[in-house]
Amino acid sequence: MKSLILSAAFAFVSLPALADGAKSFAFGEPAPASTATRTVQVVLKDIAFEPGKLQVKAGETVRFVLINEGKLVHEFNLGDAAMHAEHQKEMAAMAGMDHGQMDHAAHGHDAANTVLVQPGQRAELTWTFRQSAPIEFACNVPGHYQAGMVGQLTIE
């Protein structure tokens, strides 16, 4: 009986993560790293991305290797300007929390299009781009986007 209750609790807690992980966006969806046709390294600095602009092709699957060389926690988030604005509201609501000590799931926004990278750490995000759309890659930790930690991603 105890294992049945634990199994049910685990299944219930897993539902939002599974549903979110399956979510696709107009510009594409997450993909397994093994399906990547190209790898792009992006360095997260305080407060900038290198490179600051990226180009991909519609249909291409890109494995982003993210390296945080900064002293602050940063985020790599793919989306359009409206998505970033909404995500910034979520992040601002959590401004009292210590972002440097949290993992991404603890933020409550472990969407497939975003990765939180601790200082000195590496992370990956693999994405299949479906169609041309004006999107950005950005850090939505409070104040970072406004300070210029945003880049343009062109889908050809």
UniProtKB/TrEMBL annotation:
Residues 41-156 form the Blue (type 1) copper domain. One of its GO terms (molecular function) is copper ion binding. Keywords: Copper, Metal-binding, Signal. Pfam families: Copper-bind. The keyword Signal applies. It comes from the Bacteria. This is Copper-binding protein. It comes from Pseudomonas parafulva. Residues 1-19 form the signal peptide. PANTHER family: AURACYANIN-B, COPPER-RESISTANT CUPROPROTEIN COPI. Gene3D superfamilies: Cupredoxins - blue copper proteins (2.60.40.420).
